[in-house]
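Sharing a chain and its predicted structure for anyone who wants a worked example. Both blocks are below, sequence first, C-alpha cells second.
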Amino acid sequence: MLGIDPGLRICGYAAVQGGLLSTSLLEAGAIRIKTDIPLEKRLAQISEDISSLIESIQPDVLAVEKLYAHYKHPRTSILMGHARGVILLEAGRRDIRVLEYAATRIKKSLTGSGKATKQQMQKAVQSVLGLPEPPKPADVADAAAIALCCAGEMETRY
C-alpha cells in the first residue's frame, strides 16, 4: 500500500506491507515541490515525481486523505484538490485501486481519537512501525498514517 499526503509544497509518501498489527515500512519520504514556479508547473512536477514513485514501488493500492473544506479557508482545499487530482490521475493511468479516508478516521485508527495532534500522530506512527524516532517532516508521518489506516482496513476486510 502506498499512502500519499498531497501538498503543493511537500507530498509525503509511505509504502507499507502487511496489516495494521504486522506492518513493515518499505519506503517513506517527501517530495519537495518548487514553490517559486507557477501552479501548472508545480502540478507537472507532482505528476512526474508521483509517476516515478509509483513505477518504483508498484503498489496494489494507493491511499489518500479525503478533502476537507474548512469554511474559513476554502482556498486551501481547492488548491489541495489540484495536487490530489494529479495523484489520482497517475493512479488511474496505471489502474491502481484508490482508497480515500477522512482525516478523523485515519487519526482514530492509530490513536483512538479522531482529534489527535500532529505530534500524537508522529508518535503513533513511530510506535506502530517500530521506528527509532518519529517520521519527519509531519507530511511523511501523515502519509504513513494513511497507509497504516489502509493496511488495517484491508486486513479486517479480507
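Comments welcome. The chain has a mean pLDDT of 92.
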